[in-house]
Design brief:
Number of strands: 10
Number of helices: 13
Structural class: alpha+beta
Strand order of the largest sheet: 4-1-8-6
Oligomer: single chain
Helix content: 55-70%
Radius of gyration: 22 Å
Length: 439
Amino acid sequence: MVLGLALAVAALVAALVVGAAGAAPAAAAAASPSASAAEGAAGGLSINVRVRTGDGDDVPGATVELLQDGAQVATAETDASGTAQLAAPSAGAYDVRLDTDSLPAEADGLEPRSDTIATTVTEGLGRTVAFRLSEPGTDTAASGVSAGQVLQRVATGLRFGLVIALGAIGLSLIFGTTGLTNFAHSELITLGALTTYFYTAIAGLPFLLAAALGLVTCAVFGYLNDRVLWQPLRRRGTGLIAMMIVSIGLSLFLRYTYLYVFQGGVRTFPGYAGQAGVQVLPGVLLRPLDLWTMGLSVVVLVVVALALVKTRLGKATRAVADNPALASASGIDVDRVIRTVWIVGSALAGLSGVVLGLQQGISFQMGFQILLLVFAAVTLGGLGTAFGAVLGSLVVGLFVEVSTLVIPTELQNLGALVILILILLVRPQGILGRAQRIG
């Protein structure tokens, strides 16, 4: 059965190999300012750099450099969101330097605490470096936080929380109906972004059609996931721990298949890079793209919630999640419900990947990089509860973004994990979970 799933995945990506293999070097060369950077992108080793003022405003147009032993190996310029991607030629120790002479007019008179930050690049792990600009002699940590900064972080936190929610609700439904802790769910997120990128950037389809086909691809892959692998394992009585280990192996297989087919580096959907922000509230800037994706995410989550509460299939799903044996005895086709959950959950994960790709760019490990936050959201909201997953996602997204006002960006996930620990100490079953007696 595992071999069958491997063949299914190979068939899915085979159509992408020819186009992606030819397009990847060109895309990497266009996105990278030097040959060294292109080689680093091919190896999947990169550093995400963010330049921001002490008030939390993003700084576009700033030049950042990647240095190894004092020699420049890559350079890039921050985009409209104040971020840039530096591709490293190999794993190892590097210095990231901000060229203060390149700072735009809006950052006039501001400077970083240090213009060079040392970091280490590790194979398979993303790395983020942040420069915060302030007036000379000003301690940004002690200068206080303005209301505008808080509102901006809350807005970006809600945006990020909605992305997590799209991925978390599918993971929660799968866990609720099957008991499976699916580590390969992160690769469904990545699959949505990569297939959409293929359909639009390589096949040349309009973005909306490409996104729709990407979600269909994820839904089909979710169906194959259950039909070829998980259903046979369930029928054989395979334990949940063994199935979890299988999901880890599947995750690794898919992730490095993506790396082989699409190569490394970070890409963007054509036509959606460098969009300027608009002021939606005093002190709050969001791109029109952000507003559209947030609105779409809310609509999708509301539709899923109504479907779970109002439709016959939704009620059957909740019944299977509550007690599969009793649901089966009541005449519910449990296998059909689980397969439908896999299809819908995979499509939602794919949508999460598309939205995340619009916000942060596309890479072979983008789903893996947010997997911990997705698990934190599901656990925080209550294992197996779809509504709890949405609530937990919003809490996690807010804490990830708001915490950067007081802690370095490199530690931004710390806030979400701390709040997860604190809430579980008080309410072990999660916010909306139900306490159960064991034994």
